[in-house]
Design brief:
- Helices cover about 50% and strands about 0% of the residues.
- By secondary structure, it is mainly alpha-helical.
- The longest helix is centred in the N-terminal third of the chain and has 32 residues.
């Protein structure tokens, strides 16, 4: 019975090692992919003749 317990413990440890390795690999791939993502919203340029909506701050203030 002790051999089964030891085998089970070793299998759990091997599975945990594989899961940590896979998670690390996915994280590394994610870090390598993120520099190519957009950095944020692109600012909208206001039209010079555009009307200011009611309640909005006026440009330059």
């Amino acid at each position: 019975m002790e051999a089964v317990t030891d085998s089970y413990a070793a299998a759990q440890l091997d599975g945990l090692k594989a899961a940590v390795l896979a998670t690390g690999g996915i994280t590394l791939v994610g870090f390598l992919a993120t520099p190519h993502l957009p950095s944020g919203r692109t600012p909208r340029t206001r039209q010079p003749n555009a009307e200011v909506p009611p309640g909005a701050p006026e440009p330059g203030k």
